Each structure stands twice: as structure tokens, then as C-alpha cells.
Amino acid sequence: MPKSTVDIEIFVTAWVAENVHQVAGLASVPSEMDRLAADLTRDARARGISGSELHRALGDIDDYLTEQYRRACDQV
Hints:
By secondary structure, the protein is mainly alpha-helical. The protein is built from four helices and no strands. The protein has one domain. It has helices spanning 5-19, 29-46, 51-58, 61-74. The N and C termini lie far apart (39 Å).
């Protein structure tokens, strides 16, 4: 059964709060975003949220996570 956009946004907001943090000495932001995108997609699928549902709710996952990472860095 497809998840609602609100359910997906709630899941993603909680996931980002738990998993997206500034990484000291990070050599490659794109590599970190790839890792986070894979982890987010895996955890979403475990909750019955498909990759296409994530894309509909967030747009490009790498772009979304990059913006969330920048916000996390700005808060430090």
C-alpha cells in the first residue's frame, strides 16, 4: 500500500535528524551523500516506502540530502 506524502515526510524528517550530521574531515561530500542516500533508501524500504515514493516526496534524494547536510553544518 503506497504511503502518503505526509507519512514519508515524517519518516524522512526523523531519519535526517538521526543520521545527517557534520562529518569532521569529510573528504568528499558527494560520496557522503551517496552513502546517506543508500542508507535512507534502505531504511525507507524496510518501512514499506519505495524509492519512487521518496522521489515524489523529496525530489532528487542527493540534492535533498546535500541541502540537509549544509543545514546541519550551519547549525554547528
